[in-house]
Design brief:
- The protein is of the alpha/beta class and 233 residues long.
- The chain has 10 helices and 6 strands, in the order E-H-E-H-E-H-E-H-H-H-H-E-H-E-H-H.
- It has a single domain, classed as Alpha/Beta hydrolase fold, catalytic domain (Rossmann fold, 3-Layer(aba) Sandwich).
- It has a 6-stranded parallel sheet with strand order 2-1-3-4-5-6, with helices on both faces.
- Strand 3, helix 3 and strand 4 form a beta-alpha-beta unit.
- The termini are close together.
- It holds the Pfam family Abhydrolase_6.
- Keywords: Acyltransferase, Hydrolase, Transferase.
- InterPro entries: AB_hydrolase_1, AB_hydrolase_fold.
């Protein structure tokens, strides 16, 4: 491999901060640079605004963008804007368009997020697979996420539809999915397969927060994908 070292840019889930993803960074080998982006906490930015803001701040390529959950549609939009820099797109526990969950958009203003106990949230997102450290970091991240930003991002996710964008992306695509994901079951993988029959699919035995609870197999899948893009020649 000659020229600039390829970079992996990871965009986090709905909490928008790097802390929960440090374990993945520690598992990645140093053949590729890796960086976690934070999402701006601006309630005036929709997906289009977020993607434009982030696209303007991308480092020099070549790049692979990885979007976890909420950030899946975001990396699709960024990749569409910057095909000159972005050579691969990864969707981790994510979706092109939410289906049945979209009915919840009208309930968001009435949900007292601070009153929801942590235990059922943890069960939904990671089952019994998360370590105490991961659960503690997750609890901390959720407490720091203001209800205003949480509801704003949840509404964006419920409304967004990037199916057409994904179909038209010139980049290679990797989809990493937890086989026991209670939030985004396998039908969302089928969405990706229908839109992009060429997409690589990597199932991992885990729940929605597979990036946090299974960093080693996630890192391996990312490295194999990047090798196929940059080291095959």
């Amino acid at each position: 491999m000659s020229g600039p070292k390829p970079k992996l840019l990871l965009f986090p889930g709905i909490d928008g901060v790097p802390e929960l993803r440090r374990g993945l960074m520690e598992c990645l080998e140093d053949r590729f640079e890796a960086q976690i982006f934070s999402l701006p906490e601006d309630p005036d930015l929709d997906y289009e605004g977020l993607s434009q803001w982030l696209a303007e701040r991308l480092p020099e390529g070549p790049l692979v963008l990885a979007g976890e959950s909420f950030s899946g549609p975001l990396v699709a939009m960024i990749a569409e804007k910057r095909p000159d820099k972005v050579k691969g797109v990864v969707f981790i526990a994510s979706f092109p368009k939410l289906g049945l969950l979209r009915a919840a958009v009208h309930l968001l203003p009435f949900i007292p997020l601070r009153a929801i106990p942590f235990a059922p949230i943890s069960w939904l997102l990671m089952g019994q697979t998360g370590s105490e450290d991961i659960r503690r970091e997750m609890h901390k991240a959720l407490k720091l996420l203001t209800p205003k930003i949480a509801k704003h991002r949840a509404k964006l996710a419920l409304d967004v539809d990037v199916r057409q964008i994904i179909t038209g992306l010139p980049q290679a695509i990797l989809v990493i999915h937890g086989t026991r994901d209670r939030l985004l079951p396998y039908r969302y993988v089928r969405q990706f397969q229908e839109l992009r029959p060429d997409a690589q699919i990597v199932p991992i035995d885990g729940y929605h927060m597979i990036l946090e609870t299974h960093p080693k197999p996630i890192a391996k899948a990312l490295e194999v994908f990047m090798e196929s893009l940059f080291l095959s020649s």
